[in-house]
Structures are given as C-alpha cells and as structure tokens.
Amino acid sequence: MKLWLRNRLAGWCLDALRDPAAEARIHALSAFARHADPSGAARHLAEDHVGILAASDVFERAEPGVRLRADLTVDLAALRWRAERFSEALSDCRAECEAPRADEVGWSLCAAAALFNRRLFFEVHELLEDCWRPAGEPLKTLLQGLIQVAVGLHHHANGNLRGAVALLTEGNAKLRPFAPGAHGVELGAFCEAIDAVARALGERPAPAQPPLPRLVVRHSSLITR
Predict the structure, then answer these.
(1) Smallest Cα–Cα separation from 32: which of 82, 57, 67?
(2) Reported CATH class of domain 100-217
(3) 106-160 per-position pLDDT tens digit
(4) Strand ranges inside 10-135, DSSP E
(5) Beta partners for residue 142, in sequence order
(6) Distance (Å, rounded) from C-alpha 141 to C-alpha 128?
(7) Angle of helix 105-116 relative to helix 121-132, nearest 10 degrees?
(8) How much is the pTM?
(9) How far apart are CA 156 and CA 153, in angstroms?
(10) Contacts with 63 (C-beta within 8 Å, 6 or more apart), sequence order
(11) In the chain, where are the structural domains located?
C-alpha cells in the first residue's frame, strides 16, 4: 500500500478511536470495502457514506456512488483488509476501554491493545508515539518497548525479517523488566511469546512462525505521565 494512503487511513482510524463523532468515516470506509467491485467502484452506498468518502482525497464520485481514485485501485485489497480490521478494533475499543480523558495513558494502552490484537501494528506505533514523547521514566521505556515490538511485527508483515528480529529483540528487552505487568499491561506470557517469534524469524531456513500473542491491558484507572 502507498505510504501516504496507509498514513491517511491510519489517521482516520485513530481519529475514530478517540472521538465517536469521527466514527462515521470508518463506517463509510467499511461499507465501501464490502460493496466495491474489482474496479474500485461502489455504486450502492448510503448517501451519507458517499458524501463522507467523496470529501476525502482517496475517493471520487462515480454516480450514483464513489470509486477509489484510479491510481489507488492497486491498493484495493489492502484497503479492504484495513477497513475490516479498523471496524473490529473500533468495536473492541468501545467495548473494553473507558472513554479517553485528558492526559490518560491508560486509555491509549487499552486502545493500542485493541489495534494490536487486530494486527494493526502501524497504528499501534502511531497511537503510542503521542504518549511516548512527553512521558517520563519508567513509563517512557515501557511505551518504547511496546512501540518497537509493534514496529517489528509491522516489518515482518512487509517481509523485512532482519528489521523485524532486531526490533522485536530490542523492544522485548525493554519490556522484560516490567514483567509480569505494569500500568495494566500483562507482560509475562507476552514477552515469552515475542521471544519465541523473534527466535523463529531469526532461524535459517525460517520455520513456521509461532502464533502471535494477544496484548492484554486492564484499563481500570487513570494513569499519569
């Protein structure tokens, strides 16, 4: 997927997680993904979905619906995949995470788990980086470890095995001192599973990859920076 398109869609996803008023764009994107034909046109969408999508720089009107811009049709399959997982992560976040409050890292960790468990690793990085920049220690190291693990898995999904192993190893080294858990993040089994993934990816010839772990975050209280 083109990087600018990936970044644009990730922004839509994170906006929707933070603000229920922005959910409509994810619902419209999901509807497009369900109804689009192989040419990237979806002609049977609700008018409000058409209006939302046509107002972006990703789609254009194709009466009576919308179509993906012609130069983006090569990314249609990837867009479908992300749209489905955005909807799932959004639903998970609404069910499992309290509403965000000012300066609440706890919500961001919970929302990051919703993204991680739907394999939206780039979006995990984007979400947690906003918390990482102003954080003090030891929280800053915890957040950096989670970010590096997410980016490592993103590299793996893109076929960059060397980068994946390096970041998984480095990130997990930061997380291990926090085991079995910190700030609501359960790290014991998680760190062991990430170690197993890193070892498997580093072997030659590479064996079957162990299953990726779930990231579990108990969001129960305000976390200060």
Answers:
(1) 67
(2) mainly alpha
(3) 999 999 999 999 999 999 999 999 999 999 999 999 999 999 999 999 999 998 9
(4) 41-42, 59-62, 65-68
(5) none
(6) 12
(7) 170
(8) 0.92
(9) 5
(10) none
(11) 3-93, 100-217
